[in-house]
């Protein structure tokens, strides 16, 4: 059966741990796995801009012996002239997998339903699950384990990163706390799903409008831009709404003494995070960015193996 990765809870807790184990192994021996030798092609399609996702998938697919085919927004017939379903059927005849950064989660689901090759969400309006694999890998490297740690996400609680932290964090057994203002709280359906998962992993989910309460004693503090791709028209309103949710030294002081700071990047210093934090000693953002490569390679290897079984 073809396995896709459209949202964080497409991997069970055991499967998520397998992918992270594999990522650590591939990081230690970067060119050992060549499942795409042939070489096979992987299509990587972008409807939104990207630096990390584009470079990490292109590099990772090459590391695995394959050829990355990067297709930018407006460069293919997809969307404007051809349906997702027809595109899905053409791609499966030639490529080993489809990686897609787009707006609507429903589009990814339609692509996955219409094709026999794995489809990977490289960020949608609702989720950024590849980023979470890299984040969990980074936390594991710095903290030794995941289950039982407290992670505070402060800022826009309704965006793709917040939703992915809830689902992937609960899957990993983390105590996930989201601190966000009224009107920008996570989707209740995602909170319910994350709580269900947490009940089975020993984790927990807390949503609060108080950033200090979210950060109290946390092992990991993280945030994301206040203005996600596609929300540029709301910039002024958002900067006002989120002003009290900046991760600065005062907020970090509420976290555990050995807390680490994560940010998926790109970052806007002085808005969601103060320069003293993101450029300070607790920040592990460059490890996090590098781990996109290792985590996504592991994901591709795992999806291809499982889909062939
Ligand atoms: N974090 C992340 O996905 O970065 P890019 O938008 O540069 O790919
Ligand atoms: N929430 C951000 C993440 C960027 C990697 C966005 O969607 O723009």
Automatic annotation (TrEMBL):
GO terms for cellular component: cytoplasm. GO terms for molecular function: amino acid binding; ornithine carbamoyltransferase activity. Keywords: Cytoplasm, Transferase. Carbamoyl phosphate binds at residues 50-53, 77, 101, 128-131, 264-265, 292. It comes from the Bacteria. It is found in: Cytoplasm. InterPro entries: Asp/Orn_carbamoyltranf_P-bd, Asp/Orn_carbamoylTrfase, Asp/Orn_carbamoylTrfase_sf, Asp_carbamoyltransf_Asp/Orn-bd, Orn/put_carbamltrans, OTCase_ArgI. Residues 148-303 form the Aspartate/ornithine carbamoyltransferase Asp/Orn-binding domain. Coiled coil: none annotated. Residues 3-141 form the Aspartate/ornithine carbamoyltransferase carbamoyl-P binding domain. It catalyses: carbamoyl phosphate + L-ornithine = L-citrulline + phosphate + H(+). The keyword Nucleotide-binding does not apply. GO terms for biological process: citrulline biosynthetic process; L-arginine biosynthetic process via ornithine. Its EC number is 2.1.3.3. L-ornithine binds at residues 160, 224, 228-229. Pathway: Amino-acid biosynthesis; L-arginine biosynthesis; L-arginine from L-ornithine and carbamoyl phosphate: step 1/3. Its main location: cytoplasm. SUPFAM superfamilies: Aspartate/ornithine carbamoyltransferase. HAMAP family: OTCase. Belongs to the aspartate/ornithine carbamoyltransferase superfamily. OTCase family. This is Ornithine carbamoyltransferase. It comes from Arenivirga flava. The gene is arcB.
